[in-house]
Specification:
This protein has eight helices and six strands; from the N terminus they run H-H-E-H-H-H-E-E-E-H-E-H-E-H. The protein has a four-stranded antiparallel β-sheet with strand order 1-2-6-5. Strands 3-4 form a two-stranded antiparallel sheet. The longest helix is centred in the middle third of the chain and has 20 residues. It is globular and about 50 Å long. It is 38% helix and 14% strand. By secondary structure, the chain is an alpha+beta fold. Bound molecules: 3-iodo-tyrosine. The site of 3-iodo-tyrosine (IYR) has 7 residues, from helix 3.
Length: 229
């Protein structure tokens, strides 16, 4: 076993004013982010997608296993195959009769249906796979831990990086997604997790007029421990 090596990590202490300034600026930037479903067909340089992927890969992960694989697709024939397979699944979801009415009603105000033309129009599709186990140099499996949490956090970093660069995306999760494994030739220990179309917003892009929950709605501060009552 190699010795873990440690080195000093001393992020500079900032003044409260500077912390607030940075925190507010980041919040305001992130609050501008929207899930966009209308993409311009214009190409996006590969380097930008590479940057979003390396940013995602800075995410914390259990035992530092980084149990993710980002598969970037720009090839039109592959994007088409993904679109057709995703639409076949979505058609069953919307029109197959087994999705609870409540779920369809929750989606109705968002104006969604089974058609996913954006999967062909967006210049990049980035499919994220979660690795149930790693593969050691000699080929034997090494367990991964808290895979869902680790990959979810990395995807959050990916979305933030895409937004920061002025591009748009949305997490697309047709269920089941095994068609992605087949089309992209992924091994069985890599499970399809989410699909991100990435590109510029179309000039005519619209997003639903939704509000975010307030701080009070999403937080609770110092709840009293039952034993202290
Ligand atoms: N995957 C489907 C349905 C869908 C489900 C949820 I939950 C959403 O927030 C959005 C869509 C689709 O993409 O249409």
């Amino acid at each position: 076993m190699p010795e873990p090596r440690f080195f000093a990590h001393r992020p500079p202490r900032l003044t409260k004013a500077e912390m607030l300034r940075r925190g507010r600026e980041f919040y305001e930037q992130m609050n501008e982010r929207r899930s966009v479903r209308h993409f311009a067909p214009d190409p996006v340089p590969r380097e930008l997608i590479e940057l979003a992927i390396v940013t995602a890969s800075t995410a914390p992960s259990a035992a530092h296993r980084q149990p993710w694989c980002f598969v970037a697709v720009s090839e039109p024939a592959t994007k088409r195959a993904i679109r057709l397979a995703a639409e076949a699944e979505e058609r069953k979801f919307y029109e197959g009769g087994s999705t609870p009415a409540e779920w369809l009603e929750a989606l109705a105000p968002l104006g969604m249906n089974w058609k996913k033309t954006y999967l062909e129009i967006a210049p990049w599709l980035v499919a994220v796979f979660a690795e149930e186990h790693a593969v050691a140099a000699d080929g034997h499996p090494l367990p991964n831990y808290h895979v869902e949490e680790s990959v979810g956090i990395a995807c959050g970093f990916f979305v933030a990086a895409i937004h920061q660069m002025g591009l748009v995306t949305l997490p697309h999760t047709p269920r089941p997604m095994y068609f992605l494994s087949e089309i992209l030739g992924r091994p069985p220990h890599q499970k399809p997790y989410v699909l991100f179309p990435v590109g510029y917003a179309a000039p005519e892009a619209q997003v639903p007029n939704l509000e975010r929950k307030t701080l009070a709605q999403v937080s609770l501060w110092d709840p009293v421990h039952p034993a202290a009552k």
